[in-house]
Design goal:
GO terms for molecular function: chromatin binding; histone H4K16 acetyltransferase activity; zinc ion binding. One of its GO terms (cellular component) is NuA4 histone acetyltransferase complex. This is Histone acetyltransferase KAT5. The protein is an alpha+beta fold. The chain has three domains: 56 residues, Roll (SH3 type barrels), CATH 2.30.30.140; 144 residues, no CATH class; 188 residues, Gcn5-related N-acetyltransferase (GNAT) (Aminopeptidase, 3-Layer(aba) Sandwich), CATH 3.40.630.30. Strands 7-8-9-22-21 form a five-stranded mixed β-sheet. The protein has a five-stranded antiparallel β-sheet with strand order 14-15-16-17-19, with helices on both faces. A four-stranded antiparallel β-sheet has the order 1-4-5-6, with no helix packed on it.
Length: 518
């Protein structure tokens, strides 16, 4: 219970009562970001330390543990480093944020092991798959006997590098099958257990030299530092009404200031125009002729459709879509310069029209092979398989374009979970479908997996590491598909009812490099 005689100001930290996922009371440490007075009673906007910003909220004084109040530390009057004259000192959290930007993508996107790069040869690593043998003399160490490979050091390098034996000067490393790195898969004692041998390469994640790279500040992540203040750290919209759904925003979105004080912000669910009242929305609907997103419908199966929207030709819709998306995407900082982007909006059809479910955007020209800039499933449709469907559709477009793709980094926490799940299911599906031909051992390469799925090679390898399938055995790296992994994959695929049908896709890629200014 807060003591009204104590002046709780912005920057103070103290435990705040909240409910966890099990609906149990907990008292995590929180920082006071703002204080407002309503009818003589204070409300406090709090950010729970080490929790995602979407959990930030306004709380009443009775939820504050005043006994453990920590006042903000006074800023030292020392010259600022790397600061401009007259600029204010950085807050501790902003300093942490700046430091985080200098950390490698691997540490910002996931705690999984960084991606080891494969050799740059034109040919891929070979993989030999051996038939299962119940009484095989080939013995495999249990998982417990293998040294762990997923520990991550502070500089973004994995413990894999510590296992590598550097080549001796003047001496070539012995390799199997010529210049290619070998990947051998053995079926061992069970048709559900297999082992892949991998010769290691360098660690990399979007960086060929292994040097940690900061998130790029182009594309959808172009940054405007002038808005990096306390205002953008707070949700400014209480509620959004979109069609038959009411949404509670997770993050700040730069809607016009005069709309942020409204209890409900109304959106037209077809053109996404924002309006200040229900009466204004009703008048708008009498004039709005849209019953689906503008642009070309390039996919339809059942009630699911995808529309391709050019950010230059349909600028108003694209900007409104970005404003809505920002309510649920923390890293998104691009709202108005939509010309260089294409937007793919997924809809669900009923008698009233095509209702937006989610979307992803991509750059018309990407030098980093990004096939997704931003991706979002709206909250009412989450946990229903639509997120994975959006991801699968993005890779189907990459297949038609004849490219491999990867999402723009950094991924949000929920985005990372969806991508990891999709990559895992897609890669395991390929490995488990391998069959012998003419009695010979089936073979596959990492590059072939990448070409079949259009998943970037680095993402293929990082997923295997994330699943903790790669182990070090007799001087080589092996990948073990245990019975638990196989059974878990089969259970997951049984629940995955929504899939993209390539036959229903009507898409012709454009060469934007020949189109001048898009």
């Amino acid at each position: 219970m807060a003591d009204q005689s104590v002046d709780i100001t912005e920057g103070c930290r103290l435990p705040v009562l909240r409910k966890n996922q099990e609906n149990e009371d907990e008292w995590p440490l929180a920082e006071i970001l703002s204080v407002k007075d309503i009818s003589g009673k204070n409300l406090y906007y709090v950010h729970y330390i080490d929790f995602n910003k979407r959990l930030d909220e306004w709380v009443t004084p009775d939820r504050l543990d005043i006994k453990k109040l920590q006042f903000p530390k006074k800023e030292a009057k020392t010259p600022m480093k790397n600061g401009l004259p007259g600029s204010r000192p950085s807050s501790p959290e902003r300093d942490v944020k700046r430091k985080a930007e200098s950390v490698s993508l691997a540490t910002q996107v996931t705690t999984a092991t960084p991606v080891p790069s494969l050799p740059g040869s034109a040919e891929a690593s070979q993989a030999s798959v051996y038939p299962a043998m119940r009484d095989s003399s080939f013995s495999i160490k249990s998982r417990d006997e293998h040294e762990p490979l997923t520990s991550l050091t502070t500089n973004g390098t994995s413990s894999i590098q510590r296992h590598l034996i550097p080549p001796q000067p003047g001496r070539k490393r012995k390799s199997c099958g010529g210049t290619d790195e070998m990947v051998k898969m053995f079926q061992n004692n069970s048709p559900r257990c297999s082992t892949v041998y991998l010769l290691p390469g360098e660690d990399s994640q979007d960086s060929s030299d292994g040097i940690p790279s900061a998130p790029r500040m182009t594309g959808s992540l172009v940054s405007d530092r002038s808005h990096d203040d306390i205002v953008t750290r707070m949700k400014n919209i209480d509620c959004i009404e979109l069609g038959r759904h009411r949404l509670k925003p997770w993050y700040f979105s730069p809607y016009p200031q005069e709309l942020t004080s409204l209890p409900i912000l109304y959106l037209c669910e077809f053109c996404l125009k924002y309006l200040k009242s229900l009466k204004c929305l009703q008048r708008h609907l009498t004039k709005c002729n849209l019953r689906h997103p503008p642009g070309n419908e390039i996919y339809r199966k059942g009630t699911i459709s995808f529309f391709e929207i050019d950010g230059r030709k349909n600028k108003a819709y694209s900007q409104n879509l970005c404003l809505l998306a920002k309510c649920f995407l923390d890293h998104k900082t691009l709202y108005y310069d939509t010309d260089p982007f294409l937007f793919y909006v997924m809809t669900e059809y009923d008698s009233k029209g095509f209702h937006i479910v989610g979307y992803f955007s991509k750059e018309k020209e990407s030098t980093e092979d990004y096939n997704v800039a931003c991706i979002l499933t709206l909250p009412p449709y989450q946990r229903r398989g639509y997120g994975k469907l959006l991801i699968e559709f993005s890779y189907e477009l990459s297949k038609v374009e004849g490219k491999t793709g990867t999402p723009e980094k950094p991924l949000s926490d929920l985005g990372l979970l969806s991508y990891r799940s999709y990559w895992s299911q897609t890669i395991l599906e390929i490995l488990m479908d391998l069959k012998s031909e003419n009695g010979e051992r089936p073979q596959i390469t990492i590059n072939e997996i990448s070409e079949i799925t259009s998943v970037k090679k680095e993402d293929v390898i990082s997923t295997l590491q994330y699943l903790n399938l790669i182990n070090y055995y007799k001087g080589q790296y092996i990948l073990t598909l245990s019975e638990d992994i196989v059974e878990g994959h089969e259970r997951a695929m049984e629940k995955r009812h929504l899939r993209i049908d390539p036959k229903c896709l009507h898409f012709t890629p454009k060469d934007w490099s020949k189109r001048g200014k898009w």
